[in-house]
Design goal:
The chain has a two-stranded antiparallel sheet. It has one domain. By secondary structure, it is mainly α. Helices cover 67% and strands 3% of the residues. The relative contact order is 0.20. The termini are far apart.
């Protein structure tokens, strides 16, 4: 039982990071109907940036994380204004391909910054644990869960109670109607990219807690893809719930590999995609995705 509980907490910690990264995908998609494949690059660049900022003594971990998220939000805003904005009105497929190119460029630059030395985000927990009975709880997982919960609550409050949030909701519902009501659709697009950049940096930093950063760290962001598809491309709640499901499924697969040995030597890498596949067979639009109705 203790092994199961430890795997559950580990999965929720992983899932919290996946959820934050997945929220960036969803926010951009809801506002512009474009799937931004630049999120892995944003996440990786944000983590590498935090590894440098944390070396500034007066910033500390939390200051480095906050500043890193702000700088990645500015990068997202700059990319939207300079590269994505001129593509408005062009085929969505073309914009998606551009985001793949952006991801490769950002990751290449970030990889060069990693260098040969071992880099860490300097989190205050590292591998520290708490002992609760027979259960060992990693402090970094608890920190990730709490941070994700706070950010999700703040994000939902932002969308519900602020003018900018209401504008983003209006654009997500109907861009033309929102434009007719005086909403700056271009401003909403820019804000969505800024939020996506900041969330990717925060999610990546908590995913990196307690481990060294290598040039392959960006692959963690790929698990956000089954998260957003499982939860529904246009559902913020779906991204959060699916992130937890994927994280827990991964952890359980790692702890009990013998039960799914037919998946090979590393079943935890495959399980998220299998969970996504099984759910989509039953619910093609994801757990919370909006069902599209076409009238002929």
């Amino acid at each position: 039982m203790s092994t199961f509980l430890e795997a559950l907490i580990d999965g929720l910690g992983r899932g919290s990071a996946y959820a934050l990264i997945g929220l960036g995908f969803v926010i951009i998609y809801k506002s512009s109907r474009v799937i931004s494949f630049a999120q892995p690059g944003f996440m990786f660049a944000g983590v590498v940036l935090v590894t440098y900022l944390v070396q500034v003594s007066w910033l500390g971990f939390w200051g480095a994380l906050l500043l890193g998220a702000v700088l990645m939000a500015i990068l997202g805003l700059a990319i939207e204004r300079s590269i994505i904005r001129p593509m408005v009105g062009r085929p969505v497929f073309a914009i998606a391909i551009i985001t793949i190119g952006l991801d490769l460029i950002i990751r290449t630059v970030a990889s060069a910054a990693v260098g040969l030395n071992v880099r860490t985000v300097g989190d205050p927990w590292g591998l520290a644990t708490w002992e609760v009975g027979n259960v060992t709880i990693a402090q970094r997982h608890v920190a990730a869960i709490v941070a994700a919960a706070l950010l999700v609550v703040m994000l939902f409050a932002f969308f519900r109670f602020t003018r900018a949030g209401l504008a983003m909701r209006a654009v997500a519902e109907d861009q033309e109607a929102a434009l007719a009501q005086g909403v700056s659709v271009g401003g909403v697009f820019a804000l969505s990219w800024a939020l996506a950049g900041g969330l990717a940096a925060v999610g990546g930093t908590f995913a990196a807690a307690g481990q060294p950063i290598s040039n392959t760290f960006w692959t963690i962001a790929l698990y956000a893809l089954p998260v957003i598809i499982l939860g529904g491309l246009d559902s913020l709640l779906g991204a959060v719930v699916a992130g937890m499901i994927v994280g827990v499924a991964q952890s359980l697969a790692a702890v009990y590999p013998d039960t799914i040995s037919w998946l090979g030597n590393n079943p935890s890498a495959i399980v998220p995609w299998l969970v996504m596949l099984f759910i989509l067979i039953v619910r093609p639009y994801g757990l919370f995705g909006t069902r599209e109705v076409e009238r002929v």
